[in-house]
């Protein structure tokens, strides 16, 4: 199996921390899978198949595999489906065989991860399909603490592009920044004077567009505008900077928003509200 590398993400540390949480490592009486240790013989071996119970877009199989490998370095794993693949219900995703205790101990951590990430990828793919190629879907920073790199990886597997990874890689001026600075132009000007190269500015009315652009905004976020207002805003911007629609976007509304001429649509629901994918793992004794 090809080594899984995600920039700026420590897979080994994530796996160890997740397993430690489940095993109760460091807690009095913890550090053990009491059920597997008491019920399963030490030398018992299992084989298993992980499969999709519904149609999904796959994300996270190499990460799931890392949990099994952490507890049984000799486990045999075959990943059957490439990341980002759309599969039908009943598709086999992974085959594995190894020490029964180890596989059972790692099972829930592995499944939780692949179900969560595949759920995000699946919902993202639905939004991408609803856009119909008219513009580009972006994710947001509305991620679970500690899981940002994984969740944004999952949106990429579903066909979206990543927006800011954090607070460090671009300025995003929003209404609270504007309120403190005294206006859109003032806020943007301060960011530019500070030497910030990429300045994303949120505007909630067309009247704010020219002041933001004149002050040096490099990207405009058009917040909670209806399609008619978005079309007007796109006409004012005239391709001088990228135009992004955001705020309250759903599967029912994204198609009409994509028709307005915006370059991007950002959707917090991709990571904030995606349901877990239904993925199962069945073992049998060897």
UniProtKB/TrEMBL annotation:
Pfam families cross-referenced by the UniProt entry: QRPTase_C, QRPTase_N
Pathway the protein acts in: Cofactor biosynthesis; NAD(+) biosynthesis; nicotinate D-ribonucleotide from quinolinate: step 1/1
Keywords per UniProt: Glycosyltransferase, Pyridine nucleotide biosynthesis, Transferase
Ranges where the Quinolinate phosphoribosyl transferase C-terminal domain occurs: 120-282
A biological-process GO annotation: NAD+ biosynthetic process
Domain of life: Bacteria
Quinolinate phosphoribosyl transferase N-terminal domain segment(s): 33-118
Catalytic reaction(s) noted: nicotinate beta-D-ribonucleotide + CO2 + diphosphate = quinolinate + 5-phospho-alpha-D-ribose 1-diphosphate + 2 H(+)
InterPro entries: Aldolase_TIM (IPR013785), NadC (IPR004393), NadC/ModD (IPR027277), Nicotinate_pribotase-like_C (IPR036068), Quinolinate_PRibosylTase_N_sf (IPR037128), Quinolinate_PRibosylTrfase_C (IPR002638), Quinolinate_PRibosylTrfase_N (IPR022412)
GO cellular component, one term: cytoplasm
Molecular function as annotated in GO: nicotinate-nucleotide diphosphorylase (carboxylating) activity
UniProt enzyme class: transferase
Enzyme Commission no: 2.4.2.19
Family indicated by similarity: Belongs to the NadC/ModD family.
Function text: Involved in the catabolism of quinolinic acid (QA).
Subunit annotation: Hexamer formed by 3 homodimers.
Protein name: Probable nicotinate-nucleotide pyrophosphorylase [carboxylating]
Gene name as annotated: nadC
């Amino acid at each position: 199996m090809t080594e899984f590398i995600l920039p700026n993400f420590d897979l080994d540390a994530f796996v160890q921390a997740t397993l430690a949480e489940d095993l109760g490592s460091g807690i009095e009486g913890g550090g053990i899978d009491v059920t597997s240790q008491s019920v399963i013989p030490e030398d018992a071996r299992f084989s298993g198949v992980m499969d999709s119970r519904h149609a999904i877009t796959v994300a996270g199989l190499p990460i799931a595999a890392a949990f099994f490998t952490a507890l049984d370095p000799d486990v045999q794993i075959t990943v059957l489906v490439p990341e980002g693949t759309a599969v039908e219900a009943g598709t086999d995703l992974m085959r594995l065989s190894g020490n029964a205790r180890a596989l059972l101990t790692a099972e829930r951590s592995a499944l939780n991860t692949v179900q969560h990430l595949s759920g995000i990828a699946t919902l993202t793919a639905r939004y991408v399909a609803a856009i119909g190629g008219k513009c580009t879907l972006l994710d947001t920073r509305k991620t679970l603490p500690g899981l940002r790199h994984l969740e944004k990886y999952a949106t990429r597997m579903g066909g979206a592009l990543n927006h800011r990874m954090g607070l460090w890689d671009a300025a995003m001026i929003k209404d609270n920044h504007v309120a403190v600075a005294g206006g859109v132009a003032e806020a943007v000007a301060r960011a530019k004077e500070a030497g910030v190269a990429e300045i994303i500015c949120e505007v909630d009315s067309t009247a704010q567009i020219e002041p933001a652009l004149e002050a040096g905004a490099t990207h405009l976020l058009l917040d909670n505008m209806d399609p008619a207002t978005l079309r007007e805003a796109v006409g004012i911007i005239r391709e001088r900077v990228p135009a992004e629609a955001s705020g309250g976007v759903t599967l029912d509304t994204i198609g009409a928003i994509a028709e307005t001429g915006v370059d991007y649509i950002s959707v917090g629901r991709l990571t904030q509200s995606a349901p877990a994918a239904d993925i199962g793992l069945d073992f049998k004794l060897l």
